[in-house]
Each structure stands twice: as structure tokens, then as C-alpha cells.
Amino acid sequence: MSQKKYGILVEFEGPGQLVHAIEVLRRQHYTAVESYTPYPIEEVEELLPRKNFLPLIVLLGGLLGAATAWSMETYIAIWDFPINVGGRPLYSWPSFIVILFELTVLFAGVSAFAGTLSLANLPRPYHPLFEVERFKAASKDGFFLCVEAKDPLFDHRQTREVIEELDPVGVWELDE
Asked: φ and ψ at 164, to 5 degrees?
């Protein structure tokens, strides 16, 4: 039984070699490339740009909270439990501001938490990278690069040849 491949994990000696490897892979139009380093490397961030959807998720959560607060307060004040106090109109929007603000912040905060978890694919108790014993060094002193099999250009043999030309410290094939 053949297992489905996740990709190829490569370790390099330092950040310069890692950046060079990413440049080579980007020139060959690989797109599903991920780097793992013990500290942020500015060149890597420029070469492997990521789309960040979290601000949009938080904005939509905040807008949903504001809409929920406004509709809830309007319904309660006008139709469900109208109270005439001193000739005040039933729809008195200044009294809605505090709850509107509170629910906007609450929904935005919950959206930020849930969005962060979902965009990071968490919780994830298993990942193919965890099978490589050396990968523990990614948080200390290792510079790793993973070319994932979901890349349209990924061909097991050809991708491995390209990677081995970059003089890596180690190469591991990952199964799902």
C-alpha cells in the first residue's frame, strides 16, 4: 500500500543558504513552500508572502456584533418591551451606544480567537513534520524548508533533484 506524500523537508546550515534555496525554488515557480526558522528572517518574509485574512475576519466579527446589538436593542425598545419614560422616544439611539460598543468588541475578540485557530489549522495533534527527529532543532538552531506535495509543480524525483543541488544538510521525505 502506497502512502500519500506530504512533501520534502530540507535542512540548511544557515539563513543565507535557506534564502538562496527559496530564491531558486521561487524562480522555478514553486508555490507551496514553507520555511521553519528559530527567528524571523526578513528576506524569507519577502520571498514567501502570505495572505493574512485575520483582519477581515475580525472586522466582519465586529460588524456582526454591532448589527446584533443594534437589532436586539431596537427590537426590545420598540416592539418587545416599550417603556415611555418622561416622554422619551421609544427609539433613543444614544442609549444604545454602550451595548453596541460592548458587543462589537466581544464579537471581534471571539472572531480573532476563532480565526487564529482556524487559519493556523489548530488544534493539530499530528503533523508529518513531527516524524522527523531533527525537526526539533527548528526552534533552536535549525533552518528548514518544506516543499509540499500539493504544489502543482511537485514531482517527487524532479523536486528532490532540485533540492539536492542546493547542498542541504539533510533531506527527508514526508508521508501524510
From this structure: -70, -20
Grid coordinates belonging to 165? 543541488
Strand partners for 148: 7
Query: How far, in Å, are 60, 105, 115, 120 from residue 53 at the CA level?
Result: 11, 18, 9, 11
Nearest-angstrom CA–CA distance, 150 and 70: 44
Enumerate residues 6+ apart whose C-beta is below 8 A from 31: 151, 152, 153
Greatest CA span in the chain, whole angstroms?
83
CA distance to 17, 40, 69, per residue, from 14 (Å) = 6, 13, 53
The pLDDT tens digits of the residues spanning 75-125 come to 999 999 888 878 888 888 888 999 999 999 999 999 999 999 999 888 888
pTM to 2 decimals?
A: 0.73
Please tell me the total number of residues recorded for the chain in this structure: 176
